[in-house]
Amino acid sequence: MPEPPEDADPSQGRLDSTTLHTMGSRAGSHPLVESWQFHPNSLSPRHLELQLDSNAYPADVEDARLEVHWFVTDDYYLHYIETRGDEHYQCRWDRHPKTDAPRTHFHPPPDAGAAEESSLGPHHLDVLFTVLDWVSERVRRLHGHDGDE
Does residue 5 lie in a domain region? Predict the structure, then answer.
């Protein structure tokens, strides 16, 4: 299983449970989101997990999910993970201070590589639905629509 980001900064503060709950509730309206829940639980959440509809993906994708960490400081990271056997295709959208990258940055697939600038803003629902639009486009590409994988 992929590890949490190494560059996650403890100064980001505590998780914003209210915002995470809002994000989970609103994500449920997206056609790719099958379910959402807090991990390990709602009393002591470490992240919000959006389980994506495995039927939307090609058969070799066994699992797809989005792990959301949103902090009271409005810093965040959203980690997209596809699983195929022991292999993971992953990327991450982050907003936090980072010495060698812009505050808002993206770690591109297939392995959440070196950070590059991101145009995402600080509003939780804008970030959520922009990322879900990216995931929808990813699914279309996996099915051979709109370009390459």
Answer: no
